Amino acid sequence: MHSSSQVGVELLINVTPSETRVALVENGVLQEVHVERQAKRGIVGNIYKGKVSRVLPGMQAAFVDIGLEKAAFLHASDIVPHTECVADVEQEHFQAGNIAELVREGQEIVVQVVKDPLGTKGARLTTDITLPSRYLVFMPGAEHVGVSQRIDSEEEKERLKNLISQYVNESGGYIIRTAAENATELELEQDAAFLMRLWNKIQKRWQEYHPLTMIYGDLSLAFRVLRDYVGTGIDRIKIDSKQTHEQLSVFLDDFVPSLSGALEYYPGERPLFDLYEVESEIQRALDCKVEMKSGGYLIIDQTEAMTTIDINTGGFVGHRNLEETIFNTNLEATQAIARQLRLRNLGGIIIIDFIDMVQEDHKERVMASLEAALSRDNAKTKISGFSGLGLVEMTRKRTRESLEHILCEPCLCCKGRGSLKTVETICFEILREILRVNRAYDADKFVVYASPAVADALDEDESHAMAELEVFIGKQVKVQSEIMYGQEKFDVVMM
User: 167: which of 22, 192, 293, 490 fits an S-S bond (Cβ 3.0–4.6 Å)?
Assistant: First the structure.
């Protein structure tokens, strides 16, 4: 894919004012693409130094000015006793529910956004600050460790709890996220250290910053990716924006010093994603057909309910027998499937239809190959063996929207069906519609507005049927070609 001297794992970051894209390239092959559009970024997770502008005892809530256009909303139930906001209220008098005892007008308060402003409503706030990292969530002021209920194994929960308990101190406690399942001690230690540095920074800003300012913005894509890939063996990070390079440099020095040496600014004439052929790979990742080296191919069909993957041998016929050819194609497909799931970021239920194999050991080796290929995926996957129909069912955790959902929208012509009614089908629909309208209403003549292809067909291939219809209803039917009409759109107008 990329011809220059290849490094193991590279992160390529392409920044424009309206969009940031991050590509993960392993040994010259694109594995993951992350896209974030500036306009779609909310403010959930941001932490502000606010000022209480009004207390509303009747609603048990307060309006807080955080420097945005509209005052934000803080309900009494979202105020917790261990944060700065109630430091000047005696703890023993703390009553969740009585807003007048919790905050007062003019008071400075540290808050986090839990809901974006929408329409006429301001943002919704909490004083229960939480800071997420890849494996953990830091809870300032709490003194316990919680574990995600979605980690099934009690043994694993216990292991994680024991590892994280050593990092709990007077600063706060932790929640262990689902992604932490099977994480190493070093990975968890790096996460806890990252969160501790971040919390110290926020506290410092709380002292130094003026009210109505943001003291922590939920990380943008480039920063989140670097935070999440710490400890995964990244050899090089290339970024094509000087300004973001400087910001990332400071961020890495502060929070992820282990990656500082890997960061490089790319000033080249040729776009970074073109240099690594990432652009063309992204285009290919939107196609439903994926070619394999052997000549076989995959067909990937993504729907709302599930994704299906069908494997075909194509023109590939092995030197030996057919069974060997099928086995080798399926084996090659396991690698291609694992890569496509990451690249397209497909989540939820995935059904794989391998080419039927007769030998049991072939099936076992294909399953083992699929599991090994998926082991490099950060998203959690679960695979069940071959079903009675020879299908492999699996699930992959949805971490963010799929590449297709971010970059595409349903086709206006087929409304996401993936196919259009034929010209012939539309012609017959039009003939039936003329009959229906003629029975229901009294008209002198009809005009049919249809797409150029359908209009041509009515005047030529179906002219006989049209003539018979005119005789049958005793009225004239005129056909008008409409260049702006899609193939399925037509109108029957009475004159």
Answer: 192
